[in-house]
Structure formats: structure tokens, C-alpha cells
Design a protein that fits this description.
Length: about 160
């Protein structure tokens, strides 16, 4: 927050009077960390089930929050990054800008999870937040991990055969 202080019309009861010097105004900036704009993921870990059949998709919604001062426009880029899950095979990749308009505090990033027909253990990929393009808000908690759980996962167990 900023304000401008201007001095004018000096008055004094003193016999010497009062006067204002050459500099009669100044800009005062008040910094309050409680008002600092911060953009972050609402959670850092998500677990989603892989769809059961070809052609089906499951959507995971990842909340992106803005706290603190919401009076200015902020733009952050969100993108996915492969881990053990592969974009195009296990999920549709995302790379998009999110614009927080004045007063907005929440957006959702939607990532589509795909059926791949392969029996596998849990897979994972990450979603990342880039810094605010307008340099208004700070980004914190800028990485979230998404776990894709196998729907039909059963442990493979082999029992020993009876000796003969």
C-alpha cells in the first residue's frame, strides 16, 4: 500500500514562525506480509484411479489458490512433467496460462487420465507452477504430484508346489 504525504500551510505560535523546506512531499510505502500475494497449489499430492476401459477418461482437478492481496491481475503458467507416467499414454499433458483477475482467489487445472490397458504398479507425474508473469504474486508450493492407481491391481502371488 502506498500513500503520498504533502506538507502545506505552515502555522506556528512561535515568534519565529514556521516554514516548509524545499522538499514538501514524500511517498510512504507500507509493507505487510499478510497482504503479500501468493499463488500456490491447494494440495501437493493427488491420487486418481485409472479408467477401467478403453475410451474412458478420469479427470483430476487440481486447485490453484491465490491468497493475500488480490487487487491486481496475475498470470501463472501450469505444466505437467512425466515421472513414471508418460504423457500421451497415461495422461493428456497440460501447458496453460491461468489468469487471476482482480478479486479472484481460485482456479482449477484439469488433467485427463487415460486407460492404457497395461497392468502396472502405481504411476506418477508432476504438475508445476511457473512464476507470475506480471511479477505481482510470489509462487509457493509450486509442485504437485499425481499418482495414477491401477484399478484392477492384484498382487501376483506364487505359492510353492507340494514336494513330490
Amino acid at each position: 500500500e502506498e500513500l503520498r504525504l504533502v506538507l502545506g500551510n505552515p502555522k506556528s505560535e512561535s515568534p519565529f514562525g514556521a516554514s516548509i523546506g524545499e522538499q514538501n512531499e514524500t511517498l510512504i510505502k507500507i509493507k505487510d506480509n499478510g497482504d503479500k500475494a501468493i499463488i500456490k497449489f491447494g494440495e501437493t499430492k493427488f491420487s486418481v484411479s485409472e479408467p477401467k476401459e478403453i475410451g474412458q477418461i478420469t479427470v483430476v482437478k487440481i486447485p490453484v489458490l491465490r491468497v493475500g492481496d488480490t487487487s491486481k491481475v496475475s498470470v501463472v503458467r501450469v505444466h505437467t512433467k512425466d515421472g513414471s507416467a508418460t504423457s500421451g499414454e497415461d495422461y493428456h499433458p497440460v501447458s496453460e496460462d491461468i489468469e487471476f483477475k482482480e478479486g479472484e482467489t481460485q482456479h482449477f487445472v484439469e488433467v485427463e487420465i487415460l486407460f492404457d490397458g497395461i497392468r502396472e504398479m502405481r504411476e506418477a507425474f508432476t504438475v508445476h507452477l511457473k512464476p507470475d508473469e506480471n511479477m505481482v504474486a510470489e509462487t509457493q508450493i509450486n509442485k504437485a504430484i499425481i499418482y495414477i492407481e491401477e484399478t484392477n491391481s492384484m498382487a501376483d502371488v506364487t505359492f510353492p508346489s507340494i514336494p513330490q
